[in-house]
Structures are given as structure tokens and as C-alpha cells.
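Shipment paperwork, digital attachment
Item: protein structure file
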Amino acid sequence: MNSNIPRIILLLILQTVSFGFPLNEKEQDCVSEHHLNIANVELWNIQPIIPEDNVEMVKYMTCYWKKLGYQKENGEIDFVKLSEVVHEDLKNRFHADCLHIVAFIVDNCKQNLDAHTDGLRAVKMWNCLNIYAENLF
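Attachment content:
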């Protein structure tokens, strides 16, 4: 076995933690449209919790969620579409159908969406979904 393989894997892990993941086309569009710092977005884009006072990520999240259809142009969250995505993610992670868990998570997160901007609403929903998903399993 090549002794450089563990070093290469460690380097890739450190690079991902230090620099984040490269952005896809829709993500890059949001960075360009809002003149955001790409390094900041790449770094925070891989985090399960985004600080609500991170102005760039608040702008980024609403732009990206609107491009994906998770948030409507009027700022309203499309809970049906979001539930489908969460369900697919959990099903892939845990190899089980967990519609009842998704309904529980989304219903509880709906209760915490008191936000005065579209971006803050998206960030609060993101944070809540991740907190529930991580704590339930």
C-alpha cells in the first residue's frame, strides 16, 4: 500500500475544513448576484448551523433557496418541497422511510420562523432542520 495515501486523505480533509466545498452553478450565481465573499460562503455552506448575524450567508441562503424552490419569491417557505428534500436526505442517510419524522421536524421548525427578512427566515429554517435532524438520530 502506498504510504502517501493517508497523507493525501488528511490533506483533502484539512482543505475541506479550511476552505469549504466548491460551489455549484446556482450557488455561484447567488455569490455573484449579491457580491458576496466566495470564501465566506464556501466555508459556511458546509456548516450545519449558520449564525443569524452572518449578513452574507443570510443574503446567500434566501437567494439559493429561491433558486431551488424551497422559498417563494414572496419569502414564504415551500414546506411541501422542503419536506420532500428532507425526507429524501434522511431516507438516504438512514435507509428507512421516515415521513412521520420529517413531518415532526418540519412542523416544529415552522413554529420558530418569526423573522423579519426572507434571508433570516431561510437561515432559521436551515438551522432548525439541522438541529432536529442531528439530535433525533
